[in-house]
User: Fold this.
Amino acid sequence: AQKVTQAQTEISVVEKEDVTLDCVYETRDTTYYLFWYKQPPSGELVFLIRRNSFDEQNEISGRYSWNFQKSTSSFNFTITASQVVDSAVYFCALSELWSNFGNEKLTFGTGTRLTIIP
Amino acid sequence: EAGVVQSPRYKIIEKKQPVAFWCNPISGHNTLYWYLQNLGQGPELLIRYENEEAVDDSQLPKDRFSAERLKGVDSTLKIQPAELGDSAVYLCASSQGLAGAVKQFFGPGTRLTVL
Assistant:
């Protein structure tokens, strides 16, 4: 069964500091997708990134970067030079495509609440 | 482009009362999802529709929960009767393409409080 663990429940950092959010996943599939979503106080989850299991290349998008390591089953998210607007709950999610083909669904972690202190 | 619309945003009811939530997905999105999000937890899938067909309702408590998407566009999720443990946020999402491989667009959710 697929499982996502976000061990950091809450993190607080001072504005402009860098912060890394950890995500560890479990799956028996070789074909899967990993996602990160942001949930601001308004409530709706906002898509940040999708990564498939065959692409281990790290990605950078502005102040955001993602480190995907299959060897440790991790997909960590780093925010560089954090800003107050980054304050939100961040969710990592996993979708197995082979064992659940035709019935794919996202399994979310419990989320990490990030607070950026001005 | 309009996002996923949900109503109401908040609902407070007494236990044993019925309640219904409405969702209008992004135009053209064939897949619609209903999620349950308990406090401090990630969303959990209740039901997924491909057009008007419910293709995954394994997590939907069918004794009290029901859902419909009659014309393959908007959808309604109903609870009857509501219990105290149903207090949570109910999220609707939509997408286009293979469900497990594409990004989903979420609505703001309906926060249900059962007294």
The mean pLDDT of chain A is 92. The CA atoms of residues 1 and 27 of chain A lie 6 Å apart. The radius of gyration of chain A is 14 Å.
